[in-house]
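Task: complex structure prediction.
Instruction: return C-alpha cells for all chains below.
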Amino acid sequence: MKRVAVLTSGGDAPGMNACIRAVVRGAAYHGIEVIGIRRGYSGLILGDGIQLTSSTVSNIIQRGGTILKSARSPEFRTVEGRQKAYDYLTNRAVDGLIVIGGNGTFKGALQFVDEFSFPVIGVPGTIDNDLFGTDYTIGYDTAVNTAVEAIDKIRDTADSHERIFLIEVMGRDSGYIAIQSGIAGGAERVLLPETGVSAAELIERLRQDRNGSQSSAILVLAEGEGRGTATVVAEQIKKQSGTELDLRVTTLGHIQRGGVPSACDRILASRLGLGAVEGLLKGKQKVMVGLVNNELVYSGLQETVSRSKPISEELLRLVTILNGSAFADSRG
Amino acid sequence: MKRVAVLTSGGDAPGMNACIRAVVRGAAYHGIEVIGIRRGYSGLILGDGIQLTSSTVSNIIQRGGTILKSARSPEFRTVEGRQKAYDYLTNRAVDGLIVIGGNGTFKGALQFVDEFSFPVIGVPGTIDNDLFGTDYTIGYDTAVNTAVEAIDKIRDTADSHERIFLIEVMGRDSGYIAIQSGIAGGAERVLLPETGVSAAELIERLRQDRNGSQSSAILVLAEGEGRGTATVVAEQIKKQSGTELDLRVTTLGHIQRGGVPSACDRILASRLGLGAVEGLLKGKQKVMVGLVNNELVYSGLQETVSRSKPISEELLRLVTILNGSAFADSRG
Amino acid sequence: MKRVAVLTSGGDAPGMNACIRAVVRGAAYHGIEVIGIRRGYSGLILGDGIQLTSSTVSNIIQRGGTILKSARSPEFRTVEGRQKAYDYLTNRAVDGLIVIGGNGTFKGALQFVDEFSFPVIGVPGTIDNDLFGTDYTIGYDTAVNTAVEAIDKIRDTADSHERIFLIEVMGRDSGYIAIQSGIAGGAERVLLPETGVSAAELIERLRQDRNGSQSSAILVLAEGEGRGTATVVAEQIKKQSGTELDLRVTTLGHIQRGGVPSACDRILASRLGLGAVEGLLKGKQKVMVGLVNNELVYSGLQETVSRSKPISEELLRLVTILNGSAFADSRG
Amino acid sequence: MKRVAVLTSGGDAPGMNACIRAVVRGAAYHGIEVIGIRRGYSGLILGDGIQLTSSTVSNIIQRGGTILKSARSPEFRTVEGRQKAYDYLTNRAVDGLIVIGGNGTFKGALQFVDEFSFPVIGVPGTIDNDLFGTDYTIGYDTAVNTAVEAIDKIRDTADSHERIFLIEVMGRDSGYIAIQSGIAGGAERVLLPETGVSAAELIERLRQDRNGSQSSAILVLAEGEGRGTATVVAEQIKKQSGTELDLRVTTLGHIQRGGVPSACDRILASRLGLGAVEGLLKGKQKVMVGLVNNELVYSGLQETVSRSKPISEELLRLVTILNGSAFADSRG
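Output:
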C-alpha cells in the first residue's frame, strides 16, 4: 500500500479536520502518501485531488468544518459517475479510499465497493451519532455541548421571565443530541422520535408543573420527533391549551454543526483516522472503523447502514427521574 | 435618602445582575437600604419587595438573567395600578426608585413620575442598544459576542459546503446587533432597518460574488429590517433568483439574551448601578444614567424615550469596504 | 432506607453539583430524604447538615464547584473524629452515606466503614481521572477541555513568535489530563509520570524539529511527571542546551478545577448520582459506583484505592505518530 | 500612493489579524497594493515581504495571533539595520508603512521616520492598553475577557474551599488588565502599579473580611505592581501573617495573549486598520491612529511613546465600593 485517498462527505461535523490530519500523519508514519479529494464524491468524479503532507495538515486539529469541503453528488448515484471515480483512483494509483461521513456517505461507498471491489474504509463523521458500529460519531460531543450552552443561555431568560421554552435541536432520524443535551441542560421534558408523548399528555404535565408556583420550563425537541418543527409543535400546544401555556420557540439550527471541536471529538477523530489507515494496511475493507467500549472496532459497512442504534433506556429513565418531576421551582 | 427600591423590567439582558449588585453595594456604601422589587412593575403593584444586602448580591455579577425576575404589567398602564405602586413605595418609606430596562420600561417610569413626582432614575438594560443618552446599553456587548460566536460556527459550515447563509439577529427597531456582529463576523452583507436594499439588488450582488469561483457567504439580517423574518426574506430571494441561490436560514433567537455577561457589560453595569444611586443622592430624577464618551451622563427620561440614536455612518461604510467586495473566495 | 446523607470532599471538580442534584432527585423519586453535609468529613463531625429537596438543587447542574463546599478534615483521621461522625449520622437516623471525591476521600470512607459498618458508597469526583473502577471521573472531561482551550490560545502566540512553550497541567499522580489535552491540543511532546524522557533526549528531538525551518512547539507536562515544576524543567533544558532553546513556561493551575461543567461531566455525574442512591437501595456498600464500558459498575472501595489505572498504550502511541514527528512547520 | 507595507511587531495580540485584513481590504478599496512583511522589523531588513490580497486575508478576522508573525529585531536598533529596511521599501516602491504593535514598536518606527522621512503610521496592537492616544488597544478587550473567565473559574474553587486566591494578570507597566478584570471578576482587592498597598494593610483587610464568617477572596495582582510575582507577594503575606492566611497563587500567563478575538477587538481592529490606510492617503505620517471618545484620532508618535495614560479614578473607586467592603460572605 503506497497511496490512499481521503474525502469528507455529507453534513460537516466538528472534528473532521482532526480526522483528516490523523489520516495524513498516520499514513506518513507508515510511509504512505495521501491524496485529499475536495468536495466529497463530486471531487472524486472530477479528479479534484490534492496531495496532503504532514505540514499541510498542521494547525487544523482545532478548526471546525472540513478543509476538504463537502458537497452533494447526484452523479455518484449513477454507474457512470462511479466509473469515473474508479478511473480517477486507478489512474492516480490509489490503493485505498477513506470516506469520512454519515449514513448517506456509507451507502454510496457500499455501492462503489460492490461494483469495483475497491478497498474502502468509512469513518463515522456526523453530529447525529446515529450510526451502528460505534458508540460515538465525530462531531457529536461538540454538537451536544453547543446545544447545552444554548440551553444554559435560554434558561437565564426562561427563569427571569418564568416562561416555557421549546428548543429544537438537530437529529433527523434520532434523538441522540436531544437526549444528551436535555439531560445535561436539565430540561424538564425531552421529545424524541424514540418516545411518543401526545400533546394532551404534555399539556397535562406542564399544567401540573405550574401548579403551586409559577415557574419556567425547558422542553427539548428532536428535529425528527415526528410532529414537525418546534413552531408547529408549539402552535399545537398553545391551541389545545387555550391561552394558558405560552411557549416560546428557539430552533438552534446550524450553530450545532460548526465550532471548535471539543477535546473528546479531537481525540476520537485522531483515533479513528489512524485506525482507518491501519485498517487498510491490515487488509480491512468494506468496513467502518468505530469505537465500541473504548476499543477500535471494524464493522461491516452493510451492517452500519442497515442497523439502528437505539437510545439507552438508562438515559431515558434519567430524564424522567432527575428532570421531569413536578417540583415547586422547576428550574434546571 | 434612607431607602431606595430597584427593579428590572422588559426583556432580560446579561449584566442586569451586575447592575443590581452595584445598586445594592453602592447604596450600602452610602448607608442606604435597598428593597429589590420582584417581577418589575407588577411586583411594585403587588408589594413584592425583598430586602437586599451586600451579601445577598454576592456571586451574581457573572450570572445572566435577573435575580429580581421580569414580567409584563398591563396593570401598570392604568392609573389604579400606578397608584398602588406609589402607595407601596410610600408605605415602605422608599425615597427613590431605580428601574433597569429599556424603552418600554422608561415610558412607564415617565408616566409614573409625572403623576406622583416620585424620584426615579432609569438604567439602560437591553441587548438592543437602541436608547438615546448612552453609547452602550447593558447586555449589548454580550449579545453581540454571542451573535459573533454563532456566525463563526455557521461560517465553518458555509465554507465547507460553499453555501449562502442568512442569519437573523435580534433588534426589533434597530440594527445595532446586526451591524456590529456583521462587521465582527465578517459578514458579506448586513441588512438593517436603517439601510434598504431591494431583493433584486441583493441577488445581483450575490451573483457577482459567485462569479469566477464558487463561494460561501454570510448575510446578517436585523429582525426589524422591514421585510419580515429571515425565512420570509430567504423565500423571496430564492423565488426571484430561480433555483440559483440556495440560501440557508438560521434565526439566533433567545440565545442572544442570556449567558454569562462579558467583562464590558459587567463593568458598564457596575458603573451605571453606582451612578444611579449617586444620582438619586445628588437629587437627580426623571433621568436615565448613561455612558457617553466614557463619562457618566444623566439625560432626561423624556428625551431618552423619544429621540433615536442612529447607527454611525462609519460602521456602515466599514461593512461595504471590508466585507462586501466581490473577491475570489468570499470567506470572512 | 429512609434517609441518606451526601457530602463532597477533596479538591472540587466540575460536575459535583450535578451529582448532588442527581442524588437528591434520585432519592426523592424513591421516597428517600437527603441531608447535605457541608464541608466534607469536617461537617460530618460538626453535624453541619442541611435538608436538600428537589427544589433546593434546582439550577445547579451547570455550576462549577460544590454547593456543599469541601474542606480538609485532620480530625476525621482520628478515631474520635470518626466516632463523632458516626454519632451524628445515627442521631439523624441516616441509613446510608454517599461521598463524592477522590482517592483520599475514599481512604477515609474505607476506614469509617471498617470501624462502624456504616453503609457508604463512593462517587468518583476528581479532575485527575486516576481512580480504578471507572473509565472517567466527574470533572475530568471539563478539565481536559479547559486545558485544551488554554493550549489553543498559547499556540496562537507560539506560532506568531515561533517559540517553544512548556505547559504544565494538573495530575499529581497520573498523566491523564496531560495525555488527553496533549493529543487534543496537538502538542509536539507530552511528558508524563508514566513515560520517562531524559532532558538530553528531549533537547535532541527539539533540535531535530527546529532543523530545516524555524518553528513553534508545544510541550505538555504533567504536574507529577517527576522532575519538578515546569519552571524547573524549563531551566534544566535551557541550561543543558545552551542558549539555543528558549522555552516559555505556563502553569495552568487552578483554572482547570473550575468552570461550567461539560455536557459529558453533567451526564456522568447524573448517572453516578442516581446509581449511588440505587446502589444503597440494593444493599450495596463499601463500593464506588463507576462507569466501565458505558455501564454502571460497583467496585470494592478497597480495590479502588489500591489499584492503579494505567494510561492506554494506544493513546501514548497516538502522540508519537500524530504529533511528535519532525516536519517542516511543526504547528499543531 | 500605490503600495503600502504592513507588519506586526512586539507581543502578539488578538485582533492583529483583523487589522491586517482591514489594511489589505481598505487598501484594495482605494486601489492600493499591500505587501505583508513577515516577522516585524526583522523581516523588513531581510526583505521578507509577500503580496496580500483581499482573498489571502479571508477567514482570518476570527483568528488569534498574527499571520505575519512577530519577532524581536536587535538589528533594527542599528543604523545599518534601518538602512537595509529603508532600501527594501524603496526597492519595492512602497509608499507608506503601517506598523501594528506597542510602545517598543513605535519607538523603533519613530527613529526610522526621523532618519529616513518615510511615511509611517502606527496602529496600537497590544493587550496592555497602555498607549496614550487611544482609549483602547487591539487585544485588550479579549485579554480582559480571558482573565475574567479565569477568575470566574477560580472563584468556583475559592468558594468551595473557602480559600484566598492571588491571581496574577499581565501588565508590565500598567494595571489596565488588572483593574478591569478585577471589577468584572468581582475581586475583593486589585493590586496595581498605580496604587500602593503595604503587606501589613492587606493582611489587616483580609483579616477583617475573615471575621464573622469564614470566606473566600480573590485578589488580582498586576504583573508590574512592583513587589514581584504573585508567588513572591503570597510568600510575603504568608510570612507576615503567620500561618493564618493561606493564599493560593495562579499566574494566568500567556493564555491572555491568544484566543479568538472578541467582537470589540475585531471592530476596533477593523476601524483602525482602515483608518491607517486612509490616514496615509491623507498624507498623515509619524502618527498613531487611535480611538478617542469613539472617534478616529491621529496622535503624534512622539507623544504616544512618551506620555502615560493613567487609570481612571472612577474605576479605582468602583473596586473599593463594590468589591472591597467587608461583608459576611465575601464571594464576588
